[in-house]
């Protein structure tokens, strides 16, 4: 299994920047993709960004050009760099991984709160 710990959330002003981190431990070699997702109260969970094993990335249209997902394999860490933050970006952000073992499985972190407000 894989354990994920998110960090970096907090309160930021509109237009500001914030970088989230997701540190993975466990069966790292079996991770095929890592994604950042967010959910605000009363709203559906939204996939924000995904980075695949080979390095390809995908972004939600709402964050494209503002958010960047990246990874540092040496640190077993995936980052979400957020710029030009808007109040609508306020949510709990979660990282999750898809692991290929005997069958594919998903593992989720505990989430970190991002609040964009003046």
List the main descriptive attributes of the protein structure presented here.
7-stranded mixed sheet, mainly beta, 118 residues
Number of strands: 11
Q: Which secondary-structure class do the elements indicate? A: mainly beta
| Mean pLDDT across residues | 96
Order of H and E elements = EEEEEEEEEEE
How large is the count of helical segments?
Answer: 0
Helix content: under 10%
Spans of at least 5 consecutive residues with low confidence:
none
Instruction: Please describe the biggest sheet, giving its number of strands, its sense, and whether it closes into a barrel.
Output: 7 strands, mixed
Global outline: globular
Rg, Å, rounded = 14 Å
Topology:
Elements: E1 2-7, E2 10-12, E3 18-26, E4 31-39, E5 46-52, E6 57-59, E7 67-72, E8 77-82, E9 91-100, E10 104-108, E11 112-116
Parallel strand pairs: 2-11
Antiparallel strand pairs: 1-3, 3-8, 4-5, 4-9, 5-6, 7-8, 9-10, 9-11
Structure commentary:
- This protein is mainly beta and 118 residues long.
- 0% of the residues lie in helices and 58% in strands.
- It contains no helices and eleven strands.
- The protein has strands at residues 2-7, 10-12, 18-26, 31-39, 46-52, 57-59, 67-72, 77-82, 91-100, 104-108, 112-116.
- The strands form two sheets. Strands 2, 4, 5, 6, 9, 10 and 11 form a seven-stranded mixed sheet that branches.
- The chain is globular and about 45 Å long.
- 28% of the residues are buried.
- The mean pLDDT is 96.
């Amino acid at each position: 299994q894989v354990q994920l710990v998110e960090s970096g959330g907090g309160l930021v002003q509109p237009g500001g920047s914030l970088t989230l981190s997701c540190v993975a431990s466990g069966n790292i070699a079996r991770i095929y993709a890592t994604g950042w997702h967010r959910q605000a109260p009363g709203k559906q969970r939204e996939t924000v960004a995904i980075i695949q094993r080979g390095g390809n990335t995908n972004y939600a249209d709402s964050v494209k050009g503002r958010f960047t997902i990246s990874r540092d394999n040496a640190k077993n860490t995936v980052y979400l760099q957020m710029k030009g933050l808007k109040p609508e970006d306020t949510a709990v952000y979660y990282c999750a991984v898809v692991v290929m073992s005997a069958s594919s499985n998903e593992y989720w972190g505990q989430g970190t709160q991002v609040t964009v407000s003046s």
